[in-house]
Amino acid sequence: MMSIRRGDPARTAAGGGFGNPARARRFLLEADELLHAEVLAVPGTEDLLTAAADPDAAALGVLRVAEAAAGAGTAAQFVAAAQNPAFLRRLCDIAGGSEASVDHLVRWPNSVRLLAGDGDSVLIGTDDALPESIRAAMFAAVRADPDAEAPTAGITGSEAVGALRRAYRDLLLRLTADDLGSAAPERLIEDVTAVLSDMAAGAVDAGLAIARAEIPEAAGLRLAVIGFGKCGARELNYVSDVDVVFCWASAEGAAPEAGATAAAQLAQRTMETVSGMDSEPALWEIDAALRPEGRDGPLVRRLDEFEHYYLNIAHNWEFQALLKARPIAGDRQLGQSWYDTLNPLVWTASRRGGFIEQVRAMRVRVVDLIPGREADRQIKLGAGGLRDVEFSAQLLQLVHGRDDERIRMPNTLRVLEALGSCGYIASEDAAAFIESYEFLRVVEHRLQIPRMQRTALLPTQESKLRMLARSVYGGGDRSIARLTEERRAHARRVRALHEQIFYRPILDSAAQVGLMSAAAAQERLSAFGYRAPKPAMKHIAALTTGVSRSAMVQKQVLPALLDWFSDGVDPDAGLLAFRRLSDSLSGSAWYLKMLRDSGLAAKSMAQVLSLSGFATDLLLHNPTAVEWLDDHRRLQPRRITAVETEIAGLLERHRGGAASAIRALYSREVLRTALADILEVLDRAEVPSVLSGLMDAAIDGALSATRAELDATVQPPDYEFAVVAMGRLGGAEIGYYSDADVMFAYRAADSDLDADARAHLAAHVKKVALRLTSDLGSAAVSLPIDVDADLRPEGKSGPLVRALDSYRSYYANWSEPWEAQALLRARTIAGDAQLREDFRSLIDPLRYPSSVPESSLRQMRRLKARMEDERLPRGADPKRHIKLGRGGLSDVEWTVQLMQLMHAHTHEQLRTTSTLPALRAGAQAGLLGEEDAQILETAWTMATQLRSAVMLYRGRTAEALPADRSELEAAARLMGYRPGNSQQLTEDYLGSARRARKVMERLFYSFD
Predict the structure, then answer these.
(1) How far from chain centre, in Å, is Cα 939?
(2) pLDDT of 207 strictly over 50
(3) What is the DSSP string of 248-285?
(4) Considering 814, 847, 880, which residue would you say is the last residue of a domain?
(5) What is the band of 367 on the pLDDT scale with cuts at 50, 70, 90?
(6) How much is the pLDDT for 803?
(7) What is the mean pLDDT of residues 779-787?
(8) Which of 32, 555, 782, 915 is buried most deeply by CB count within 10 Å?
(9) Dihedral of CA 175/179/182/186: which sign?
(10) A GO molecular-function term, please (predicted)?
(11) Region at 51 (left for phi over 0; alpha for psi -120 to 50; beta for the rest)
């Protein structure tokens, strides 16, 4: 590490000056009068003030320091220090850049001599000697022997604490003056952060010496302080929490229980010497929350306890934190043993299940927690900020460090250099990252220095922004405009570098032109979620090899796509689908242009391909739909009237084979809906009604096509035909997984047909129904509609198609109570309008009866109970089964349907085939409480969306809450949960179902 050197004094005043020059000159004259010497109101001093970050504050600060010196009787020391040519410049820099430093000089006027930059300065020295000289200065302040085996302070209490804190701030004063005086502070940033870390370590070590002197019970006890985070990495800020853990070992012959108590007292007092209340202000916060089990765990632990915790209990993120840990104070041998025992575990952690995914999810959560109004001003946690650089470096270390010791180091700047020199990232990318990181750290420090407060938030006031800009730049243009533009440019570059750093070397390796070996590239892919890295490398090579336009474009966009795929649940599927899609569209100029120019389209495509097998299959069959992703407005569902008009046009153009074209249209519009759902363009609550409308239109159009073809061939007697939707389609609440449950009805135009004509017509309408079912269900490349007529009277043993009079006779004489319940969802969706209306008139008295016999209610309840016992699959957990489980879809729907059977006759608003409208109408009518209705609605909505989400992910329906981790994670994301929150989905679903079951038992079975 370089020594800290003072900056170039020949800095310009560009970027601003005094707000009140006359007042500044008056302050200098007053200061000289107080000092009884002419040392400030001399030629050149005003220029020094003008060069400070805040010239007016500098003038006032100089006066305050002179007043304090005069008041304390140290004016002579001030005047003597001023004989050094560097003194006034350093004083003006401090006074105009750090009010907190001025406050320290006012409290301790004699410390002003330190600004002369000579004498026994501990900040100038060799690399190896500097940390020890800082530590020695801290121990000297508390009169402890730094060479003792267990240094113990010669003073205690407030006297010792005050001496320690003053010594720390004296060192901080010199460092701040060196830093603020630099013409190029970014060149010093690594040295500044290292000195700050060494000062923090020295303060903690001296604080431990005070604690030893005050706690005689700890005599002989060994305590090591392990620094984490920035202090552990020797890259500390001016003001930051110092994260630590404490490891202790018993004194020889001491009882372990007593030792643990004394060690905890020693650790607690050590923290208080630095952070507690006292006559001299606290330095910064010592935070021990990173210890095993966090704040709930014991403050101190033995080494074997640490080892057991990290081997058996620790969470994945704790190994990332361990990456920067090192002994900073206390017993050196014990600290080194701690490091030697635990540090190797860091380099095996990336093999733990879900490690990289969880680390990345934590970064996402940190960004999500930033208040929206602060996001653009956050230089640390915001997008393109310091944390992005640190996160990128750490992630690559965790992936490759287990096999390469050359990159095992905690310091971010050193890691970036090593990653570049070892070929894990391009050397130019490493240099760019380092440049951005150094700039952002300088800005962060300049935000903290004025009041020595912890912050990484850019100010909004113009005066503070002006001071910040002048503080960041030692010379040249020191304007707000320059600071704003450069900060934005660095943020943009950091965001862009992320994908280049992680994935560009993989492309080079696939093309066999990179420094990274194929094995290392596969290792990186594996770490970032690719389960089959070898085939993935083949896909990448196939996409980027050659000099064709498609290869060049794909080489350009693949780093971003690989990153976005890895953010998904199944990146391998995403990459494979992208290759297949690109193969089919590689000759399309619009596709390549969209890939190259539209970040929205490329990111949306990556999200879909890596998250939804259902949508991916549809997209591969309809690849031109990728164009919709460039404009999310095109994903909005089309009006059903527009779909019906298009179907009518198909019927005109395809008189003989319109069913196939209608299926293709239906598939296309379901794809549109799925894409809108996945990309959150469409409210998920609208999905069932949109899908139901599409299925209605497709069935109606296919029926028209079938009748036109068959009727022209056979020429049967005139007749009417209708399709009645049942079940979820009847309720207009289907998902991507739903069959089309229907019944078929017909009526002869002539009621006096003879027996042969009636038989002929019956046979013909059956052919219509069978042909319709076949045409809609046979789809080689488009999405089929599986028409199921099992809910018809008498089920599979009954006629497929019934005449309206036959329905009337059946319902009058033979129907069971459960059939009235099933008819609550009957909705005519296709065929002749008058027959549809007459069918509704026929079934309304049955499904909305004036009264329900108690025997029917008992039968309904028995049937529900039997379903729970008999239809639940063997071994299924009833708490997790979405449809038939406790609090699942069936519980909610049967409760609502019971209410409809009992009350729809008198409450017309209950006469709807859809569950949620009926539930809300019942609450509005006072038939159930608002709270009960909300509980049932929440459970039903969550179960419905969960089934659709699993269908979107794996392309087949789900009957239970997923147990597979990937499937559960995909479902959670598709339901709007943030990445990594799948367990929250489980808890939310089980909780909502449990509450719904209690309501259902009380309302449906009438017991608590």
Answers:
(1) 26
(2) yes
(3) EEPPTT--HHHHHHHHHHHHHHHHHHHHS--SSPP---
(4) 847
(5) low
(6) 96
(7) 78
(8) 915
(9) positive
(10) nucleotidyltransferase activity
(11) alpha
Q: Tell whether 779 is covered by a domain.
A: yes
Report d(CA 445, CA 178) in Å as an integer. 13
Q: Which amino acid is residue 584, in one-letter code?
A: S
Could you tell me which residues come within 8 angstroms of residue 220 by beta carbon, excluding any fewer than 6 positions away? 150, 251, 252, 254
Q: What angle do CA 628, 632, 636 make, to 5 degrees?
A: 90
Give residue 6's pLDDT.
Answer: 34
- Give dist(CA 706, CA 721) in Å, integer: 12
Print burial letters for 118-145: b (CB count within 10 Å at least 16), e (below 16): eeebbbeeeeeebbebbbbbbbebbbbe
Domain count, the chain: 2
Alpha carbon distance 264, 989 (integer Å)? 43
Phi and psi, residue 803, nearest 5°: -70, 155
**pLDDT tens-digit readout, 413-430:** 999 999 999 888 888 889
On whether both 999 and 895 belong to a single domain, the answer is yes
**Domain stops at, among 830, 847, 864:** 847
Supply 80's token pair: 């003597």
Both tokens of 251, joined, read 């004194």
Closest C-alpha among 391, 358, 394, 382 to residue 458: 382
The torsion defined by the Cα of 115, 120, 124 and 128, in degrees rounded to 10, comes to -150
Angstrom distance (rounded) from CA 967 to CA 952: 10
Beta bridge partners of 960: 881
The pLDDT confidence band at residue 368, using thresholds 50, 70 and 90, is low
**Structure-token pair, residue 100:** 């907190």
Cβ 262 vs Cβ 218: under 8 Å: yes
Instruction: Give the mean model confidence (pLDDT) for residues 202-210.
Output: 97
User: Positive or negative, the Cα torsion across 604, 607, 613, 614?
Assistant: negative
Measured between alpha carbons, how far is 869 from 290 in angstroms, rounded to an integer? Answer: 49
Q: Is the pLDDT of residue 656 over 80?
A: no
Integer Cα distance of 445 and 235 in angstroms: 12
DSSP letter (8 states) at residue 632:
G
For tokens 């750290």, what's the residue? 441
Distance CA 674, CA 688 (A): 11
Whole-number Å distance between alpha carbons of 471 and 52: 7
- Alpha carbons 623 and 347: distance in angstroms, whole number: 43
For residue 764, what is the domain's CATH number? 3.30.460.10
As a whole number of angstroms, the distance between CA 382 and CA 458 comes to: 11
Tens-place pLDDT, residues 175-188:
999 999 988 899 99
What pLDDT, on a 0 to 100 scale, did the predictor assign at position 504?
74
Give the H/E segment covering residue 440: helix 427-448
Residues 6+ away with beta carbon under 8 Å from 876:
885, 959, 960
Q: Which tokens sit at 385?
A: 């900020």
- N residues, the chain: 1008
Q: How many helices (H) and strands (E) does the chain have?
A: 41, 10
Distance of CA 185 to the CA centre of its chain: 34
What does the alpha-carbon distance between residue 155 and residue 152 come to, in Å, rounded to a whole number? 9
H-helix or E-strand containing 721? strand 719-725
Q: List pLDDT tens digits, range 967-996.
A: 999 999 999 998 878 899 999 999 999 999
Using alpha carbons, list the distances in angstroms from residue 606 to 183, 528, 567, 658: 46, 15, 9, 34
Contact 921, 904 (CB under 8 A): no
Question: pLDDT tens digits for 136-185?
Answer: 999 999 999 999 999 999 999 999 999 999 999 999 999 999 999 988 89
Residues 6+ apart with CB under 8 A from 412: 233, 235, 389, 390, 393, 437
Q: How far apart are CA 819 and CA 790, in angstroms?
A: 12
Q: Are residues 813 and 736 in the same domain?
A: yes
What the block records as the tokens of 581 is 């899609």
Residue 795 is part of which domain span?
A: 693-847
The Cα 763–Cα 765 span in angstroms is 6
